[in-house]
Amino acid sequence: MGRVRSAVPRSRLPLHRRPFADPAALRRWALVAALAIVTTALVSHALSGAEDARRRWGETRTVLVVDRAVAAGDPLAGAVARRVWPVGLVPAGAVVVLPDGAEAAGAAGAGTPLTDALVARPGAGRADGRRRIAIA
Fold it and tell me: Could you tell me which of 47, 101, 98 has the C-alpha nearest to residue 73?
């Protein structure tokens, strides 16, 4: 019996010479390889920059932040959200746990961190259900 020929045409060039046979294909694959290297370098640089920025800020802490603007006396129950902030930006007296029935002691805009000065406990500063007012 003789050798059976395949219906698929085969190249007569050896494998190590095939990439150099078509210069257009060689240029195309060289361009693809160069773009892959540049993309890898850019992504690596961006990730290392983000990691350096995170390290510069240091540790983080969860604080309560006002989600929407509130006026004095408004309940804070549905108007706050937990956010992670760098410790260097957390104000002194930041509230971590909202007391039951807490109200806003003053006006606060969206994104304002809650502090002890902004949180009024129910009944605090009131005598017999009335507000106290300081008169000079």
Answer: 101
For CA atoms 63, 68, 69, 72, the dihedral sign is negative
Q: Is the pTM for the entire model greater than 0.85? A: no
The tens digit of pLDDT for each residue in 11-37 reads: 788 878 887 788 888 899 999 999 999
Single out the residue of 104, 105, 115, 116 nearest to residue 78, CA to CA. Answer: 104
89 touches 127 (CB < 8 A): no
H/E segment holding residue 83: strand 80-86
CB-CB contact of 113 with 63 (8 Å): yes
Using CA atoms, how far residue 108 sits from 76, 81, 84, 119, in Å, is: 11, 14, 19, 10
Residue type, 27: R
